[in-house]
Amino acid sequence: MVERDDKADPKLGAQIADELIHKVKVVATVGIVNTGVGLSSIEKYQNAKVPLVIAVSTGTVLTKRYAPPAAPENYIFRVSPRTDIETAFLVNHIVDRVNLTKIAILADDTPYGESGKVDLEKALAARKLKAAAIERFKIGATDMSTQLARARAAGAEVVVMYGIGPELAAIAQSKSAMKWNAPLFAGWTASMQNFIDAAGKSGEGVMMPQTFIQDNDNFRRRSFVLSYFEQNGSGVIPSPMSAAQGYDAMRLLNNAMQLSPTLAGVDIKNALENMNNRVEGVITVYSRPYTPDDHDAVTSNMLVMGVVHNGKTDFAFKTDAKRSFMVERKKSL
User: What angle do CA 207, 202, 300 make, to 5 degrees?
Assistant: First the structure.
């Protein structure tokens, strides 16, 4: 196996894609965490007919760009929730379970933040709602009091933030300093330890959609966590959801390669699209995770709500801990 680090740099990510495809001549790739890197790279895998299984990045466009009828074949697959699935899950939870409708959006100015903002607006429109306020921020921002003050002045009752750990922590800390008690929600990235550690007490109670939460009574999930600890010598998984999805992506790809008559890209792609045997992953047991028309293995019914509690991400609702592993993929909309 060949490993490369794109450092969340779209230009470097594109260069690595070229290297893997044309120099190393990989038969398939697992990876891509950053949506901007994905946008700069997927065309290269698609044109070379080299299957790419995205394990972390959620940008909706990544698996949609070459989906039929846009292209006759799609070589881009994913084992993470699309942003449009995640935002619909968030909005439905806030409206139906929290009973709040005046939602402010705070998103960073990266492709990931843009994807979150756009899909949140669509999810609100589906519920006949509009954002009370939309605020943007730059990577590296440490004071979000101006954006939050405008959101509060606009009558927002709840804040949904889309970004990465340090900036999300700045939002949480700025909101605490303002003594504003509006609930905080976020994309899945609020489960990363770099948010939880940086936010400290200000991050307590932040909720976010998750496919995997580390503390679980399920045997396979416990075994995965213990194996991770043994191999990495650490009691903390910096991003449990990313680790679980990466593991499942490799299991699905390996299974497809075993079923494929050759290691040609088209044969591996076809094997991924027609995988009828059950594959036990960490997130769930996969049965037909992909079809020719649908390359997203994670669907809305597989999400649970996580919450930051005592320095880690826990289940917001204990009933989810019992049901989550047994929930299988359903056809995406």
Answer: 10
What CATH code is assigned to 83-210+306-310?
A: 3.40.50.2300
Per-residue pLDDT tens over the stretch 123-175: 999 999 999 999 999 999 999 999 999 999 999 999 999 999 999 999 999 99
Q: How confident is the model at residue 218 (pLDDT cuts 50, 70, 90)?
A: confident
Same fold for the domain at 10-81+219-298 and the one at 83-210+306-310?
yes
- The CATH class that applies to domain 10-81+219-298 reads alpha beta
Q: How far apart are CA 281 and CA 249, in angstroms?
A: 9
Q: Break the chain into its structural domains and give their ranges.
A: 10-81+219-298, 83-210+306-310
Longest CA–CA separation in the chain, Å: 62
Model-wide pTM > 0.90: yes
Across-strand partners of 315?
Answer: 306
- Secondary element (H or E) of residue 118: helix 111-126
- 138 by Cβ neighbours in 10 Å (0-12 / 13-18 / 19+) ranks as exposed
The two three-digit tokens of residue 176, written as one number: 């605490």
- Cα separation of 22 and 33, whole Å? 22
DSSP state of 244: H
